[in-house]
Amino acid sequence: MHQENTMTVFVCIGTIAELIKTTPVILALRNDGVKVVGVATGQNDLSTSDLFFTAFPEGIENQITSGPVHPTPISLVLWFVRCFAKAPFVFKRVFKATTTNQYFLIVHGDTLSTLLGAFAGWLVGGKIVHLEAGLRSFRLLRPFPEEICRRVVTCFTTVAFCPGEWAMSNLIHSKSAKKINTEENTLLDAMRLALDVQCLSEIIPTEKFCLFVLHRQENLLDKSFVRYAVKLIEEMSKKMSCVVVLHEPFREVLKSLNLLERIVQATHVKPIPRQPYISFTHLLAKAEYVITDGGSNQEECYYLGKPCLLLRQETERQEGLGKNVVLSKKEKSIIQDFLIDPTSWKKVPVKSTVFPSKIVAKTLKNYLKNTRS
Prior knowledge:
Blueprint: H1 2-5, E1 8-13, H2 16-31, E2 35-40, H3 52-55, E3 62-63, H4 73-96, E4 104-108, H5 112-123, E5 127-131, H6 146-156, E6 157-162, H7 165-169, E7 178-181, H8 187-195, E8 209-213, H9 217-220, H10 223-237, E9 241-246, H11 248-256, H12 260-265, E10 269-273, H13 277-286, E11 290-292, H14 295-304, E12 308-310, E13 325-327, H15 332-340, H16 356-372
Parallel strand pairs: 1-2, 1-4, 2-3, 4-5, 5-6, 6-7, 8-9, 8-11, 9-10, 11-12, 12-13
């Protein structure tokens, strides 16, 4: 029993999106008797997430640095440089503070924190475990920097957990990483966790509504597209109430273009701030359809069978494409075709019996047992 209780896995988390998708993995590991040691890069303030204390009841002691309160491209670069300089020393200290001699370090996805954690952890002897591995847009600079991050992280990966056969096939030329098919994304387990919680949030309208989300930098830097997005919101609200999630960067761009008041004062438009994950998941589940530029939203809509228009030129994810998800390529003709009858894209929710987080936990526990024998 003592041996099982001292098995340790490390996890590096930088953004709230990473925290959401790693929380069910952390819970599954602990349920299997594996100790989880967290390291926060500081890219986001993780303590603001409603899942933070679910994943880390005692908080995260190991913080590399703190990120910008209001992130901009320049402030993120400066944060990355600071964090990159400190990260190897932090990981070395954290690794050496445990009794284990095999340092399995989990990173997730494709953020700057993913890249930083993978490289810095590998540099000081960590074995990199990449969750959501194998996703590709096959465009090096779109989305930027995510596609670059994914490809570089693969170079340092020891164990790659891929959410399906397509992702597995994208790593066919990667000889160093052990590839494991989790069949589904760990986001599915996070959604199960969220939807099991009763939500009485006042942000959810009682009438039928659609949901609009715009937050990616490549869209927010495109001022003409932001102006078009406002017209799109107004058009959507003529047929149905429209809930608009105002992420802080989106709010700031709208304000700079003198469009914020236009959104706030529009009839049948309900602007709301970014929501806690549990509330947002319930909001998403009750929307008639969703227009978004978020990759995770694409996956969530796929699992819910929710009609989804993706405001991106390409996507690194296959979930729902041609079924309930329409990739707009930011072409107005495709967008307008979708709006003719969005609910025609509605599908039956996915009824999967797979628990990808348990697959990850079981695999890592077996690795730990084998390295101790």
